[in-house]
Specification:
Transp-assoc_OB_typ1; alpha+beta; single chain; 2 domains; Arc Repressor Mutant, subunit A; five-stranded antiparallel beta sheet; repeat; OB fold (Dihydrolipoamide Acetyltransferase, E2P); molybdenum ion binding
């Protein structure tokens, strides 16, 4: 299937912007003229002028500013509001494309917007990006401890400031994305006792080695993968055959939280 959604913006029940009007605005921005923009967009000058006039009347600020000229009209340019409208339309169009791709890919999570955006477009230097739901909030004198339950049922604690909790609007039940770097994770056997920090159990999916370090990939359930970059000395003696069970450990303070307001 090659699905394509056509984005239309209505003001109440009246058309404000659609693909044809957006194409016209783009051509006006390029040509600096309503008449030339109309020609490049493949519509008549009258239709273009009516569209621009209608948008200018509906919008809280003009979309196009123009100067009267001779036959065919004078110069025209997008206002700051018009530029923002084009950027907004482009972003919304990208989001529609992401949703349509998700429809055709059963592996893409569609429970919430954050999962969808993280799958397709969120790029960070943090190798680990795990989606979950806030299940507990506990504050102390310096930080808040946020406990998040992952899709596979395991839990992660993140330590963030009170101000960050307020800024993110965190509450029980909120969907969040947890970010932490692979070098912040250490790998241990299931039998090794650990006094503090996050501990996630997983099954070894892949190990890549060089002379000094190894990158380890664990399946931690719920279609989630966890990545660790460790010194070879630190994993000496561990069971490292594919399918072996290990535990990954990292401190709550190493975890960043992202969410959609």
């Amino acid at each position: 299937m090659d699905l394509k959604a056509l984005l239309t913006l209505n003001n109440a029940d009246k058309l404000f912007a659609n693909p044809k009007r957006i194409a016209l605005l783009k051509q006006i921005r390029i040509t600096g003229s309503i008449s030339q923009g109309a020609k490049q967009a493949g519509i008549s000058y009258k239709a273009a002028w009516d569209a621009v006039n209608d948008m200018n009347l509906q919008a809280p600020q003009p979309v196009i500013s123009s100067e009267k000229g001779g036959k065919g009209g004078g110069g025209a340019k997008l206002t700051e509001f018009g530029e923002r409208l084009l950027k907004l339309y482009e972003l919304m169009d990208q989001m529609q494309d992401m949703v349509l791709k998700a429809l055709l890919d059963a592996a893409v999570p569609m429970d919430n917007l954050l999962d969808l955006m993280a799958h397709f477009s969120l790029k960070t230097s943090a190798r680990n990006q795990l989606a979950g739901e806030v299940i507990a909030l506990k504050d102390d004198s310096l930080n808040d401890n946020v406990r998040v339950k992952l899709a596979g049922g395991q839990e992660i604690d993140a330590a963030i400031t009170h101000a960050s909790t307020d800024k993110l609007g965190l509450h029980i039940g909120k969907k969040v994305l947890l970010l932490f770097k692979a070098p912040a994770v250490s790998i241990h056997s299931l039998q090794q006792p650990l006094s503090s920090g996050n501990r996630l159990k997983g099954q070894l999916l892949q190990i890549k080695r060089d002379t000094q370090r190894s990158e380890i990939t664990l399946d931690i359930g719920g279609n989630d993968r966890l990545y660790a970059s460790v010194c070879n000395d630190s994993i000496e003696g561990l069971p490292l055959a594919l399918g072996d069970h290990l535990q990954a450990c990292f401190e709550p303070g190493q975890t960043l939280i992202a969410c959609v307001s």
